[in-house]
What we know:
The protein is mainly alpha-helical.
Amino acid sequence: MKWLKYLFFCLILVSISMWVQIKLLFGSLGKDRPPITIVENPQIQQLIKDKTRIDVESIKISESDRPQLFLSRELYNSFTPDEVEYVVLHEAGHYALAHSVKELLYDNRIKMAEEEKVRRGQ
């Protein structure tokens, strides 16, 4: 009788794992993946090369509402797990601290102050 309980448990376990896989498969059908735009901007690529000595092959922008983090295959394969962890957490920190939003607001505030100076003739 003990083997029957074991068999029943195994069948439930297999059924649950298959159900999860089926749900993932059907849940992704018909959904468009966010497009990725390849940006051709030699000035930015040259700036990155000048500042970091890294020759960036391409710059890609994901049209997604959700935050995403991309790593190059070379970085992922050649860095130690601790180094990859550092890079990922560093970049995630920018998102968590809303650096892009703060930077945008700061840049706009500076532009508005400069425009005000020009308007006043200073």
